[in-house]
Amino acid sequence: MFLPLYLQTFTGNSNTESVVRHNLQHTIVARFLCFIPLDWSEEGRIGLRIEIYGCSYWADVINFDGQGVISYRFKMKKMKILKDVIALKFKTGESDGVILHGEGQEGDYITLELRRGRLLLQINLGSNQYGSILGHTSVSSGSLLDDHHWHWVVIERYRRNVNFTLDQNTQHFRTNGEFDHLDLDYELSFGGMPYSGKPISGDRRNFKGCMESINYNGENITDLARRKKVDTSSFRNLTFSCVESHTFPVSFNGTSFLQLPGRREHNMVSVSFQFRTWNSNGLLLFSALADGMLELTLKDGKVAAHISITQQKNSRVDMMSGTDVPLLQHSFGLRHHAFMWKSVAYYNIIFPI
Ligand SMILES: [Ca+2]
Fold first, then answer.
1. Fewest beta carbons less than 10 Å away: which of 210, 232, 274, 279?
2. What spacing in Å lies between the alpha carbon of 180 and ligand 1's midpoint?
3. pLDDT score recorded for residue 165
4. CB of 90 within 8 A of CB of 150?
């Protein structure tokens, strides 16, 4: 079983005495740490000694229910911002949702959102009055971010230069257009579009999940929300802890598998699960029966169930997903939707053994 992890390479010492210390750039909360030696000094013998130093950690978490939006009002009505540093962590099972949004009457805007499991940053520092130089800039990062795991985002902007960091990956880009200031009016909102109070604003959905340690230009937004210094009136129930999901996705890397004990006395098998994959072929499930086998496979993007009972003649039953099989009523366009949980297979196969 492979779970997404923070992977980082550290350079160690090159002699026997010196100590090399690394400070982690981002906070990591973990129960287990795994170190994999990649290389060693050619002059010495192989050896490895590591010490880990932790620190006290206060989780500043807010649960977003898909309704509530945090509105951070600026002290001045109009803000002309040359430099931005925005940092937060998020965790969600939803593929779409607005994480933050701000806009101004001059046409400037900044929007960070999840779209189809990817992180999309859209920023516009202004277009000229003739519209011949357009400031709209759009950059996306990551994939499969609706995986119920924490992800770290940092946006650092100085004039038109932007560093956009997701977990360990930083992209540098320059915004389009010819302006340097982000002109925003009134407020910046987190978790959705401002004033909406609705789960869907236009074609944009509010964020549903958890955010932690939201920091905007030195202001700790999560702490301001706790102290009621920002507008959180759109929340039905504002909670400062993460409501854990009942769904636990498991990733398989092509060689790993999950094995569950069977139940001998039962003559029925019921199976249901959701999956997503980039591959169009693979074994989804296998079970040896007392007298045969049950197999669920992906073949050319279609799901097939094979059941064979060896004692009887003509006992092999093959079902392909499609219109002929009432149990498998979904159309599996896996090549196009492979990365989305929407392309989910849902089975409930019950048959006498
Ligand atoms: Ca501007």
1. 279
2. 6
3. 96
4. yes
Q: What is the DSSP string of 154-188?
A: EEEEETTEEEEEETTEEEEEE-SSS---EEEEEEE
User: How far is the centre of ligand 1, averaged over its atoms, from the C-alpha of 159 (Å)?
Assistant: 10
Q: Which residue has the tokens 């985002």?
A: 153
200, 39 in Cβ contact below 8 A? no
Contact status, residue 131 vs residue 138, Cβ threshold 8 Å: no
How many angstroms separate the CA atoms of 270 and 349, rounded? 5
Q: What's the topology of domain 61-226? A: Jelly Rolls (2.60.120)
Q: Where are the alpha helices (DSSP H) in 151-267?
A: 221-226
* Ligand 1 centroid from CA 73, angstroms: 19
How does DSSP assign 55-103, residue by residue? ------EEEEESS--EEEEEEEEEEEESEEEEEEEEE-S-S-EEEEEEE
Q: What is the pLDDT of residues 45-84, one digit of tens each?
A: 778 888 999 887 777 899 999 999 999 999 988 899 999 9
Cα of 79 from ligand 1 centre, angstroms: 10
Q: How confident is the model at residue 201 (pLDDT cuts 50, 70, 90)?
A: low
Looking at per-residue pLDDT, the higher value among 283 and 274 belongs to 283
Which of 129 and 119 is assigned the larger pLDDT?
119
Query: What pLDDT is recorded for position 54?
Result: 86
152-166, 315-329, 330-344 — most confident range: 152-166
Contact 142, 151 (CB under 8 A): yes
Protein residues near ligand 1, an ion, with CB under 5 A: 108, 125-126, 179, 181, 183
pTM listed for this prediction: 0.69
- Rounded distance from Cα 137 to ligand 1 centre (Å): 13
Dihedral sign of CA atoms 248, 249, 253, 258 in order: positive
- How many whole angstroms from 126 Cα to the centroid of ligand 1? 4
What is the Å distance from ligand 1's center to 84 Cα?
Answer: 13
